[in-house]
Amino acid sequence: MGDALKAIEKKHHLHGALKQGFLKLYGYTSDADGIRHGLMDESALTGDDAKYFLLTCTSFINYLKAKA
Fold first, then answer.
1. Which terminus of the chain, N or C, has fewer Cβ atoms within 10 Å?
2. What angle do CA 57, 38, 36 make, to 5 degrees?
3. 10 Å Cβ neighbour count for 52?
4. 26 close to 1: Cβ distance less than 8 angstroms
5. Distance from C-alpha of 38 to C-alpha of 35, rounded to nearest angstrom
6. Is the pLDDT score of 37 beyond 70?
């Protein structure tokens, strides 16, 4: 994620708070209890969590494509 954000910053201004928000969301999803893990044990995550992150990720991809 850091490399993708650096590539955007080379071409376009990226507000610091927005960059930190993306990095923090990525960090959350990568956490041991995050949405991107296989969830081998019981989890507190719900279908609503999965839907939120799916939509957030697709929005981020669209943002990157628009900035390219």
1. C
2. 20
3. 13
4. yes
5. 8
6. no
Cβ neighbours of 55 (radius 10 Å): 10
pLDDT above 90 for 12: no
Site of tokens 């992150």: 53
CA atoms 19, 8, 6, 54: torsion sign: positive
- Where do the structural domains in the chain lie, given as residue ranges? 2-67
Q: Which pair of structure tokens corresponds to residue 9? A: 């910053």
* pTM for this predicted structure: 0.67
| pLDDT (0 to 100) of residue 58 | 92
Here the tokens at position 66 are: 């628009």
- State which amino acid sits at residue 15: H
Q: Which residues contact 12 (CB under 8 A, 6 or more apart)?
A: 67
The amino acid at 31: D
